[in-house]
Amino acid sequence: MQLKFIDEFRDPALARGVVGTIREAWGDRPPMRLMEVCGTHTVSIARAGIRPLLAGVVTMISGPGCPVCVTPDGYIDAAIGLGKRPGTILATFGDMLRVPGRESSLEKERGRGIDARVLYSPLDAVEIAAAHPDREVVFLGVGFETTAPSIAGAILSAAERGIPNFSVLSSVRTIPLAMEALASDPEVKIEGFLCPAHVSVIIGSDAYLPIAEKFGLPCVVAGFEPLDILYGIYLLLRQKIRGAATVENEYARAATPAGNRRALEVIARVFRPADIAWRGIGVLSGTGLRIADAFSAFDAEKKFGIEIPFAAEKTACRCGDVLKGTIAPPQCPLFGKACTPEAPYGPCMVSSEGTCAAYFKYGVE
Amino acid sequence: MGGDKILLSHGEGGKRTRDLIRRVIAKRFENPVLSPLFDSGLLGCLDGEIAFTTDGYVITPPIFPGGDIGRLAVCGTLNDLSVCGARPVAISCSLILEEGFPLSTLETILDSMKAAAAEGSVLVACGDTKVVEKGNADGIFITTSGVGTLRDGWRPAPENVRPGDRVILSGTMGDHQAAVLIARNRLELSAAVLSDVAPLSSMLLGALDEYGGKVRFMRDPTRGGVGVSLNEMAESSGVRIVLDERRLPVAENVRGICEILGFDPLYLANEGKALLLVDGQAADGIVASLRKSGYGKNAAVIGEVTEGPPGVLMRTSVGGMRAVDYPVGDQLPRIC
Question: Is there a contact between B336 and A144 if contact means CB atoms under 8 Å apart?
Fold first, then answer.
């Protein structure tokens, strides 16, 4: 495997050109408030130093698209609870380890003896279950439409192979309805969405049509490379100048209007939409994916008779406002003081894709 | 030798221990200091200021693409001496073996220690071998200490670093940790990524011979990578370093794996690279000097020392500017 053409998407001369075109087209209008929904965009914007390049033209607001950040502390507590059951192996994506629950984190509990293993793919958790038939393997299923197909695939694989000691503690979320919730929140005041790249590969760019239509908001699907982002922002500004509100796709090299049909089928087979709590935001109707009844044998909540509490969060942390984009991280009283990547108070500081972590790590001032 | 695995009795001091040490270990490193097998290696009188360093090596898997724990244990200590301007004289070799460790793997590891020591012109002067019960170690742990003598008239001088100086990296970033990550997670890639583990003494001491005090300060960016080492260098020199993202050398296949997993090669460990803060006027000449060595063929100026509060910044490829900070803990694979 080789990745080619990375440099082309980071070409300095092209980038200068796009920035110049943006500034010229926008003139002296007041800055447009744009939300990048996805955490990978947040990190890419910070790493490439795009915010200062476009100061005065756009105000980039970071959205809730970081899977770790929106996972409620009650979920971490439930996972720790399962991990403490004798013989249990917790299997998780690496980012989840340091997320604080109410009392502890998986990293701390691992030090105290629970068996929590970092995996790259949910399918590896099925292999661990097959190799240890005497132990219960619980996969911590977090993420969005991007991870949902592989989690669903792991459940289908366990079902087909008859591996009864595998289950998933699901906290999977979907993006478009959450964007609608943000679009209709009067506090947030978004004027356009930079839509996620990988999520759109799965769900297709047409998934944002209702947002563009219902709320009159420009939507542009953009890749994660710096030039993708700059050009995506240009398209959003151009829609605004023209008074348009449609969905455009800058990431057509990977995302199609209809998305990945097979992935969507697998998701539809294994999951059902459900209400779910987003950390700091609250319950958003229909934005969760719970495991369908036909596969309830693999649903850790049902299997172990637990329920993930819709817990209230700590109060001083303003992750919720950061996730909604109503404040920028440095406006939180804890930012950089009581809350740093070393001693995170809120999940936005934990995750490598968290808005606060990106500001803290890459901010120049 | 009592079979093809390490047994507890290999560490109990009896005949098996003696056989293991004499026939397997000491035989390989034969030299006048080690061979009498006294309780200490007698090095004689050393000329010049003495540098002394130690490092423990633990790595899974012990044999990885491009090297193994043996080569790592020798090169790591040699490089720690070399970046301080010390010509390596002797190293120690302390082995902790887990019961059941395959003898053939131990022999492979000792062979590459021998080869790396020969390449770095250093002798193994003393050693120790212990065996612990199965489960109490991860196969093999190696500790090496090293003694070297400082090249006349050169010492690391972070206090001499000043605005206008340049930052040189002796080659591509992240190869070692990428190779180990791939091996550990059985990731399938068409182009092999090999660890860069290598002894840098002749390359670095060569540059010092030519350029002396124009080389202010050197580090080997191992754990934590270039990002952490540069932060430490900026801190100890009290200067601001500005990197140029476009000049950072990264192998194509390493960059690919980083893109996929969400890693930053700036923070991946290297085992055969050096960072040099050098006089701006001499920078090109020093790069040319490093490139004469096979281990420095991709050496490049990657940034400069500027006015401003201490720290590390980076001019990004698209013309932005951002901070390069210490990471917290290990980099973890991204979720989506």
Answer: yes
In this predicted structure, the answer to whether residue A108 has a pLDDT above a threshold of 90 is yes
Domain range for B132: 8-39+47-150
Predicted confidence at residue B277, as pLDDT, reads 98
Residue B3: inside a domain? no
The predicted structure's pLDDT at residue A338: 86
Is residue B331 situated within a structural domain? Answer: no
Residue A94 pLDDT > 50? yes
Return the pLDDT at B190.
62
- A3 to B256: CB separation less than 8 angstroms, yes or no: yes
Q: What is the pLDDT of residue A1?
A: 44
**Residue after which a domain boundary falls, among B150, B178, B209:** B150
- Which residues on chain B are in Cβ contact (under 8 Å) with A19? 319
* Residue given tokens 């950072």 in the structure block: B248
Any chain B CB within 8 A of the CB of A115? no
How far apart (Å, rounded) are the C-alpha atoms in residues A343 and A349? 9
Q: 10 Å Cβ neighbour count for B262?
A: 18
Q: Is the pLDDT of residue A2 over 70?
A: no
Average pLDDT on B3-27 reads 90
In chain A, list all ranges with CATH 3.40.50.11740: 28-328
Residues A3-27 have pLDDT tens digits of 566 778 888 889 999 999 999 999 9
Minimal Cα distance from B185: which residue of A?
A120
Q: Using only C-alpha atoms, what is the Rg of chain B? A: 21
Q: Which of B263, B250, B257, B252 is CA-nearest to residue B300?
A: B250
The CATH superfamily of A28-328 is HypD, alpha/beta domain 2 (3.40.50.11740)
Specify whether B280 is located in the same domain as B318: yes
| Contact between residue B171 and residue B53 where contact means Cβ atoms under 8 Å apart | no
> Distance between CA A250 and CA A338 in Å, rounded?
39
On the question of a cis peptide bond just before residue B62, with omega within 30 degrees of 0, the verdict is no
How far is Cα A52 from Cα A70, in angstroms, rounded to an integer?
Answer: 27
Q: In terms of pLDDT, which residue wins out, A307 or A345?
A: A307
Q: Do A226 and B329 touch (CB under 8 A)?
A: no
Please check whether residue A41 touches B, CB under 8 A.
Answer: no
* B147-174: pLDDT as tens digits: 999 988 899 999 999 999 999 999 999 9
In terms of domains, do B168 and B265 share one?
yes
